[in-house]
Protein: Addiction module antidote protein
Amino acid sequence: MPLETVPWDIVDSLDTPERVALYLEAVLEEGDPALLAAALGDVARAQGMTQIAKETGLSRETLYRTLSDKGNPQLATLMAVLKSLGLKLTVAPVTGAA
Structure:
């Protein structure tokens, strides 16, 4: 009997602010800008891309393109998206750094 699988999308799991924060924290630890852009796209899709577009003043198409693994959002875009998601960017020292 063949194994049956179901499609899985991270968007379905990003249903609380805590899960969103943990997801983005894990992505930030990887240090990959493309992964961060794609993860922000995941969060924006979970929250509703149309709503994010309205709140940021950017088009849905621009957001989909910018918040993809091939996207490279400008800092202003990143900050606008984070604000619309109810999140903020913080900085912490790297453990063991001089």
In short: The mean pLDDT is 91. The chain has one domain: 12-84. Residues 12-84 form one domain.
